[in-house]
Prior knowledge:
The protein has helices at about 5-30, 55-60, 105-120, 125-130, 135-145, 145-170; strands spanning about 40, 50, 70-75, 80-85, 100. It is an alpha+beta fold. Among the domains are: about 40-100, no CATH class; about 105-155, no CATH class. A 3-stranded antiparallel sheet has the order 4-3-5, covered by helices on one side. Strands 1-2 form a two-stranded antiparallel ribbon. Helix 2 crosses helix 6 (about 145-170) and helix 3 (about 105-120) runs antiparallel to helix 4. The longest helix is centred in the N-terminal third of the chain and has 27 residues, at about 5-30.
Amino acid sequence: xxxxxxxxxxxxxxxxxxxxxxxxxxxxxxxxxxxxxxxxxxxxxxxxxxxxxxxxxxxxxxxxxxxxxxxxxxxxxxxxxxxxxxxxxxxxxxxxxxxxxxxxxxxxxxxxxxxxxxxxxxxxxxxxxxxxxxxxxxxxxxxxxxxxxxxxxxxxxxxxxxxxxxxxxxx
Length: 171
């Protein structure tokens, strides 16, 4: 028969184990800044799937530097970045395994700015943003109000994720 001290130790270990399990579950649920990973079946074989790095795809899609080319590795779901000047020297990045991540066009960016301004309803910020004709003046207008600026980046990221998900459906 266990002693009182042994019973106390068992209870304490149980509490500790449940707390660690709860902490691990919390970290698992909240470790990612972006959306949950997307599992995509590939057309090559119906049984082959891969988990997509959604955050990496979002960054790749929104990158407008013109310096990097981004590829999705359909075997691992990772994003491979390559300098544009090195594209010719990397013949191993061939389809169907590597798919070039599309980039957001200037027309799509203009449409995003217009849709965001329209989404603000009747407000002074909407009127100011609607008058902005180029990306630079739009950014300056956003910088005047941090709340509107945060809302813009959330809006833009949501639109980028939607575009990426539409692209992934083409596989």
